[in-house]
Amino acid sequence: MRNSHDFIRSISSLIEYLKESGIDTKTAHIEDLIEHPFSLLIPKYYADLIDWRDSDDPLRKMILPDKLEHEVKDYELADPIGDAVCSPTPGVVHRYPDRCLLMLTNVCAVHCRFCFRKNILDTNSAHLDKALAYIRAHTEIWEVIFSGGDPFMFTDHFINSIVSKIRRIPHVKMIRFHTRTPIVYPQKVTPNLLASLQNAGPCSVVLHVNHPREITPAFIAVVSKMRTAGALVLSQTVLLKGVNDHEKILGELFKKLVESGVKPYYLHHLDFTKGTHHFRISVARGKEIMQKLRGTISGLCMPEYVIDTPGGYGKIPAFWFNQIAKHTYEAVGFEGQNIIYKDTG
User: Fold this and answer.
1) For residue 49, which of 209, 213, 188 has the smallest C-alpha distance?
2) pTM score > 0.85 for this model?
3) Which CATH number, 3.20.20.70, 3.20.20.150, 3.40.50.1000, 3.40.50.1450, labels domain 84-342?
């Protein structure tokens, strides 16, 4: 699935790697880091993108544990978007009528500190046969979305096998992959994986990318190969305080994505994940950023700014929410229900 030599898995191994790279760990402010139950996992490729002399480096913030993660607020949740209530069988999340998530792995290429599924990354309860039986039985499912974990961390053989199984279900017309691997560990995108994408057609790949510095020559080359394999390539971004919460940073990111052949798809307001309050900004600030972007960059570069609502009600465009009281917003969900959202940013 992955070459263990390509990864850093602890603070001690990070210190060792930085020393081998000629970086002063005292200048890098590494030696005072605190271990966290949500373990550290960093590809060496991604570690090399970080400016270790800058303690405020945005890429660093996304992957190194912070002492604030130990301060869990009372509004923060283990299952912030309600996956459990929408899971009819292990490994399937069926939130919207015509599409479902198929989550067969708890393995990722990196442990992002703001991960909204960090609660499942130490277990894997998926049952492949039951999941496939559910999809076969529900003919309304038009699209199957591989998520997790990160489906690009499957072995090449398993990706090809599971794609072949899904393609034999007549009513499934579209396959989608949600992945951060091409951004943080692009060497995992092998010719065999690309062949699986070609076999999956029509398919889409949604890349999780958060900062312009993640757009590297290696990333651009992988995107080109995925497009050549026939994949529609989109992106999703999480709005993170101290990382990308400014219109200039996001504008640069979205333009670079389009220049690379990637259509910005979603900008996510941060979920109420445990220990992530230090990354959170207000809905009002998020709307302000998007309003400043509108008209200053091409509409082709603009994603939809969404809030994935607690309780399993799904993604709702942030601009559908109207403020009805201090820190309180209301919107109508896709099934017609009134949804109250408490803003804590």
Assistant:
1) 213
2) yes
3) 3.20.20.70
